[in-house]
Amino acid sequence: MSSESPRRRRPTAALALVTVGLILMGGLYAAAGSLASPARAETSEASPALLEKGAVLYKEGCSSCHGLNLEGVPAESVGKGQAKQNGPSLLGVGAAAVDFQVSTGRMPVGATGQQVVAGRSSYNEEEVAALAAYVASFAPGPAIPSEEDLDTTDASLAEGGELFRTNCAQCHNFAAQGGALSNGTYAPAIDPSRPDHIWEAMLTGPQSMPVFNDTTINPDEKKAIIKYIQNINAAPSPGGAPLGNVGPVSEGLLMWTVGLGALIACSVWLGAKAK
Amino acid sequence: MSNDSSSEIEVAGAHEIEHALRRSDTDPRAAQRAERQVALMFGGSVLASILFVVAFVSVKSTAIVDLPLIGRIGLQNLALGLASGLGLFLIGAGAIHWARKLMSDEEIVDERKSFASDDETRDAVVESFQTGVEESGVMKRPLIRRTLLAAMALMPIPAIVLLRDLGPLPETKSRETLWRKGSRIVTDISYRPIKPEDIPLGGLVAGALPADLQKIEEEEGNLNQRAKAAIILVRMAPDEIRSQQIQDGDFQGILAFSKICTHLGCPIALYEQRTKHLLCPCHQSTFDLADDGNVIFGPAARRLPQLAIEVDKDGYLVAKEGFQEPVGPSFWERG
């Protein structure tokens, strides 16, 4: 034994070192995680029962496209203008994205195409909450807005209008009626949308929509925009028939068909032989 | 030259239809009925005009009425429009009904006439012109002829000189914007400076301006500087940028482009974050922001100018330099 070099380690030493290292790393990571997580209260506050329910629902309804661990599933072929993945990874998308996509009925997706369309939600409110909590428990992301976030009583309608026309109207139309994008996609009408869905769409940027996080459009400005959209929906149009609020397209169509039609009918009457 | 060729063409059957009398020509009761109808239309117009005044006086301008299919519209506007439209229409309709049913119903044939004058008149004109040339002596006196031509040729020049002097020339105004090296980038409306970490991946700042614009706008009270300087900011993953106009013009994947379409100058912010395309709603020009801002569809002839950006010592986004090419639609002297 004495002939053995003192620098030579026992075979078990390496194993012990790795074990100690792993425990240390894990402990540090957990400590760092617990320091970082209070900002996202909803991840830690979700009850185990809710998370369990969310896990079951996720595995049934979402995992075939988004993967068992939210990692996403690559597509077999990537077409022009299509999403690069069959189901994108949901890590870090946050509860807001889940609530928006599932409760507007966009997810689970009915048919693949250029645009995932809204419809009736396949899940009730409680199930959506469970799914959102489950997805948010993997990685922090934008949270579902609270009632306080959506309280627009003190928001400025005029500022909301300015912000809407600068940031939203280019796609969603000056009266929030939506409009065409490229390659068969479109921006939907948002005047009937629920305030929480408008908030979540700005935060998460679904499909073609860019992300407007709380630093590019701060929460007060988001409130003002929501107030303006709701006002559009409620306001009458005293000047005359809005014709869908899509501007010269519907107005022109009406004049070219009904207006010119009436003129032609009059000229036929003028030219006909009296009996 | 035969001037009567048109009358030789016989329109088949035109003379064969016998003139049919109207019922109001033969039956006095039908004529009375038509008279009453015309009077009813004129009377209706009287009522509509009275209705217009009544609606104007008695209906509140703020009253709203909810109509099926049409929506919630102003009652006074609706009443005024219907009344004045109906009043005018009934006068016209009554007049036409009167003419069709009661006014005299004769058929008259009016032959077409030739457009050309007869040979005699034409010869007289030529003769008169030639006499004029001879008597003025313009062919015999070349000095007078040439000086007259010179005088006529130079006549418009004073007018051209005057027009040339109208107002100051644009000089370099069409090529310059407010952006300089170090101009801080602020959001439109709220005038907040922007840090790189404020813009998320896939994010868009749909309207951004140089910070000193707010002061200039208040002082000068015009929108010209704003119209030229407006930009948009987008953020994509740095490896998604295939090519850009200015080397390292981005900051960690944040790209700044002019907001003014190079076709006719519409402000554009219709950005699709998946495809990185920017679409102009006016004429559907589409720019690929991940590839030089090049035009990939539509009538725009030039790419969207890029603004090179960096951060200043306080960590806010600023311009690295001014725009390297004129923004907005093409203009005459641009070349």
From TrEMBL, chain A:
UniProt membrane topology term: Multi-pass membrane protein
Keywords from the named record: Cell membrane, Heme, Iron, Membrane, Metal-binding, Repeat, Translocase, Transmembrane, Transmembrane helix, Transport
Limits of the Cytochrome c domain: 49-139, 155-233
Lineage: unclassified sequences, metagenomes, ecological metagenomes
EC number in record: 7.1.1.8
Keyword set includes RNA-binding: no
GO CC aspect terms: plasma membrane
UniProt-listed PANTHER family: CBB3-TYPE CYTOCHROME C OXIDASE SUBUNIT FIXP, CYTOCHROME BC1 COMPLEX CYTOCHROME C SUBUNIT
Reactions accelerated catalytically: a quinol + 2 Fe(III)-[cytochrome c](out) = a quinone + 2 Fe(II)-[cytochrome c](out) + 2 H(+)(out)
Enzyme class, first EC level, given as a word: translocase
Official protein name in the record: Cytochrome bc1 complex cytochrome c subunit
GO molecular function: heme binding; iron ion binding; quinol-cytochrome-c reductase activity
TM region positions: 253-272
Location relative to the cell: Cell membrane
From TrEMBL, chain B:
Residues annotated as transmembrane: 38-58, 78-99
InterPro entries reported in the protein's UniProt record: QcrA_N (IPR045603), Rieske_2Fe-2S (IPR017941), Rieske_2Fe-2S_sf (IPR036922), Rieske_Fe-S_prot (IPR014349), Rieske_Fe-S_prot_C (IPR005805)
Domain Rieske, first and last residues per copy: 254-318
Stretches of the chain forming a coiled coil according to its record: none
Predominant location category: membrane
Gene Ontology terms: cellular component: plasma membrane
UniProt topology in membrane: Multi-pass membrane protein
Name of the protein described by the UniProt record: Rieske iron-sulfur protein
Species assigned in the record: freshwater metagenome
